[in-house]
Amino acid sequence: INTSLAQSVSVDIYDVLGQKIMSGDHELTPGANKLDYDFSQLAAGTYTAVITSANQTYTKKVVVNK
What we know:
The chain has 66 residues and is an all-beta fold. Helices cover 0% and strands 56% of the residues. The strands form two sheets. A four-stranded antiparallel sheet has the order 3-2-5-6, with no helix packed on it. It has a two-stranded antiparallel sheet with strand order 1-4. A hairpin with a 5-residue loop joins strand 2 and strand 3 (20-28).
């Protein structure tokens, strides 16, 4: 995640049924930030990551292949 500001974000991972299966809070620093999640216990499929900061929300598709 690239940002020009230090900020807090929350990340929620949802399955195809819309159920929240993972979540986490992170502190970002200005510049490029890498957030690591362990998806090894998830079944193969498509998930949605929702990243929320104080003023914006982003969604990203996550595909798990096994």
